[in-house]
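Posting here for the record, re: magnesium ion.
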Amino acid sequence: MNEWPGLGTAFWLQLTRDLRLAFRHIGQAANPLMFFVMVTTLFPLALSPAPELLQAIAPGVIWVSALLASLLAAESLFRQDVEDGTMEQLALSPQPLSLLLLAKTTAHWLMTGLPLVLMAPIVGHALFLPGDAVPETMLALLLATPVLSLAGAVMAALTVGLRRGGGLLSLLILPIVMPVLIFGARATDMAMQGLDVGGVMYLLAAILLLAVSLAPAGMAAAMRISLD
Amino acid sequence: MNEWPGLGTAFWLQLTRDLRLAFRHIGQAANPLMFFVMVTTLFPLALSPAPELLQAIAPGVIWVSALLASLLAAESLFRQDVEDGTMEQLALSPQPLSLLLLAKTTAHWLMTGLPLVLMAPIVGHALFLPGDAVPETMLALLLATPVLSLAGAVMAALTVGLRRGGGLLSLLILPIVMPVLIFGARATDMAMQGLDVGGVMYLLAAILLLAVSLAPAGMAAAMRISLD
Amino acid sequence: MFAFIHKLGSPPHFWRLSGTMVPWFSWFAVVLIAVGTVGGLWVAPPDYQQLDAFRIIYFHVPSAWLSQFGYVVMAAAAAVGLIWRIKLAHAVAAACAPIGASFTVVALATGSIWGKPMWGTWWVWDARLTSTLVLLFLYFGYMALRAAIDDENRADRASALLAIIGVINIPIIKYSVEWWNTLHQPATISKIGKPSMDPEMLVPLLVMWLGFTFFFFAVLMVRTRAELIARERNKKWLREVIGRG
Amino acid sequence: MTATAAGPVLLEGRDLELWRGETRLFTKVSFELRAGELLHIVGPNGCGKTSLLRVLCGLTLPETGDVYWRERKISRNRADFHASLCYLGHRESLKADLTAEENLVFQLGLRAWLSKADLHAALDKVGLTKRRHVPARSLSAGQKRRVSLAKALASGARLWVLDEPYTNLDVAGRELVDQMMSEHLARDGLVLLVAHQAHGVAAGVTRRLELG
Amino acid sequence: MTATAAGPVLLEGRDLELWRGETRLFTKVSFELRAGELLHIVGPNGCGKTSLLRVLCGLTLPETGDVYWRERKISRNRADFHASLCYLGHRESLKADLTAEENLVFQLGLRAWLSKADLHAALDKVGLTKRRHVPARSLSAGQKRRVSLAKALASGARLWVLDEPYTNLDVAGRELVDQMMSEHLARDGLVLLVAHQAHGVAAGVTRRLELG
Ligand code: HEM
Ligand SMILES: Nc1ncnc2c1ncn2[C@@H]1O[C@H](COP(=O)(O)OP(=O)(O)OP(=O)(O)O)[C@@H](O)[C@H]1O
Ligand SMILES: Nc1ncnc2c1ncn2[C@@H]1O[C@H](COP(=O)(O)OP(=O)(O)OP(=O)(O)O)[C@@H](O)[C@H]1O
Ligand SMILES: [Mg+2]
Ligand SMILES: [Mg+2]
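Prediction output follows.
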């Protein structure tokens, strides 16, 4: 029998702490969202506002900006905790580090991934995405954004002790998440053409399962190396 | 007569320090370039590899990556210096703070803006941008990316200090950034159609002048408040 | 098993072993590549469609193959190093990355050169090309991570983790890219690769392939020895062997 | 000083060796620690005291040697060991945007079921009752250190690992640290202390380990 | 202790008052400092010593009162004042990724024309010659503090503002600080010192300011 609190309590504590911190810095929390909106409004402005063209690129734009928005936030996911010494304390708690980092990643997803899912209808409307494709896109985003957050978290844990700048983190993340991007964009594309997206969704779900089961251990291992 | 080193020396010191921090190893200088190559790869993957479509979105892609790259790093531009106490030391040096912050911003531009300008031909080729449009695009990028970096820096100085209101204030930056992007993308677009881009270039140059003359004082003021 | 791995993993042992093997591997590589080149460029008949342009295949295919094989070798070495804490394995992984990346670059370059007459452009967004490009990014990521960490021990372990993650992902990337491409069937691209190849073309290709593989291992051993010199420069055994000659 | 043995060995380091870059920080470091004992690690700046503490906590892997807690390797027994451990490093490990109380609730919540009363008692003891709702960012350096002390008090951990706990404290604060350690030893606790000054702990057994 | 006046007043605080949140940290703080004088500011944790130093450096605006350097308000005369000032705070202000030497070259380069020889002499004096090419991240706590001391030495600043300079230093390090301050005073320098321990400066004039 352990005398220390259970896994659920630890997860919940870490999650609420991170959310509370984020909302103290509400500006930072809004950044990825703002970025997402900017990118999607930029395209109509930068290209010709012809609905057919916009519609043709809508899936690509939505998915690339989702990817880049979570990339944007991954940089700061663990850095501050490592710099102020809190991460050391997490590593020295009786709780599994993988669980705590998973909780941090969940908080990160709630702040960056979930808003994207919720924004999708608006962005889709701005890009003349047919209304029918919206639910499928949202579902696909719901399955894909956690993978983006998890992959970002593993790479962030690997690079956290290192000097910033130079785009090292994006160099590591982008190749790894490419499949998610391809499948996700394809789901939107197929939904626009009225095709059945079941298969793609299963694929995305499978990737998500894989990521959820492997990433926490990877993060913890990476973090212990970075703290050494 | 001052006994302390002149403005040029101070600027140079700050600039080289920041570059050295980013590129401890010479190989790391290639990372920003890699980043753009990757972002460009994402679009064909998310859309379709069809040349006509890629060509149609090429201006959008180039300009969105420019925006992204500048804002991606801007968030953390001053944060670390403030947290580790180096910013205090800058504020306590006999040099004008605005100059030092301008040097930091210049370093940031050299790492994010300049590589983009240099990569534009390759990115353009991959997206089937007509070769004639490339020089104009490069020139437009050369004028626009410093503005993006400066705007990002002002935003960073504001967010680092005014912890709560940071998000709101960064919204104020949008109206500055948007015209730059619109004009920039328009320049590429017009060049693709073989139109004269002189007017747009003058506009971009004017915005750049405005930004260079106002932004440093703004950054310094925001920073002094945040250090109090 | 464990003892065997540890014996193999001892740097002095490796130093001796590789010292005798490098010349052999190098000679095999030189001979095989020479034979393959002659066979490919002069003996094999020109392709009925592509004429002589197809001959670049003798460089393209082996390097494309080694670009993938190299990653697997690197990840395997990294995994051994991480799990059994064998420093030599980390040295092998570190030495392998630039070689694999070079073969990837050669595959991309020869492919592009071939593509110019075939497709009229240097680059198309074809599945195999795209996944080769991603592979190059993976190599670059690995090398960039190593370069960014000063402490060698930490660099070894962190980059090993990255290599392992990458190797899990490579099949997923390959599969997704292929699926992405078949959905679109870009009009301009003629499918590359014809399964039926007449033996006069095939044999030189296999010889080339073997030669490249020997070349790969020879370079890998030389580079690993260089890594060892850098890493073990303060160790007694190294001073002794180098002092002796 | 040699110690009078009492009870079983709880913490043991055997033949520890650590390298950093090109230099060997220490080698063949061994010690045993029993209930109610304090180990004072001393040595000049940069001799590896902090590094040794990190090895003992399991944050850093030593080149050779092992650390045992209750006769089991700590790497095999992580959760159990860390549940009995409270480490205060050079840095304060506080989230600048959370208040002193929030910081403690979070960090202690991961390791023990904690009552509000215990928490307040600890904050009271270090003299931070009035300041407990101030974000850690606005606390003075000494006040931050006191929050860490409160953490050690409320953690209920058996083993305290203290790296220069006197830093930034005023005279009363330094006496508080000594008093805390004495009481902890009297309760059969263990203390690993790194400090350049002499400590003022009279009770319990104190040993000394010279590094470098 | 009262001082024997010597030469003109260089640094002067007049009627300083500072509020933080709801509390008044201090009010009516006035003092004068002449060449060769050391002002030792003491008080319990959280009484506002660091805040006072920041006011004196011009980082924080006081509620009322002014600070004068050579009889001119520092807010009017920033560059000149800052050129004569070296501030070592609680934090080390080092870039973790730059080496000790690079950090100094940069920070000092902004304020004075610096010869390599001076720099090396300063690093030598604090005992970091061997470690000068190690990134600050890998330095021990005491070694980081020594880098800051080297900065003060090589800065050539007239006024040293030292916030707990003894932190993390071993016995030799603390003696070095005392010796540095003595020599600085002998060279007609000024020192503002915040420290909880007594300092060991015999030369020059030392005054004491009690806060809180
Ligand atoms: C930059 C451009 C190219 C890249 C990156 C590339 C990449 C690759 C790769 C990775 C392989 C190995 C496949 C395997 O091991 O299963 C391969 C094989 C091959 N490539 Fe390319 N390739 C490129 C251009 C071309 C072109 C233009 C042609 C000719 C039309 C071509 C013809 C072949 C053939 C015939 C094979 C071997 C047959 C096979 O394995 O199916 N490649 N290429
Ligand atoms: N990567 C590295 N390369 C070279 N030296 C290193 C590296 N990492 C740490 N060191 C050295 O190892 C030693 C570590 O010291 P540690 O922090 O354990 O010292 P300490 O005894 O706690 O000193 P202090 O009293 O100053 O806190 C320092 O001398 C430091 O310079
Ligand atoms: N925003 C704020 N709200 C409330 N109190 C604050 C705020 N900012 C600072 N304080 C208080 O002001 C005081 C500032 O103390 P300062 O750092 O100057 O103390 P100090 O004398 O240097 O103490 P130490 O000896 O611990 O370094 C502390 O008591 C702190 O709690
Ligand atoms: Mg230490
Ligand atoms: Mg203070």
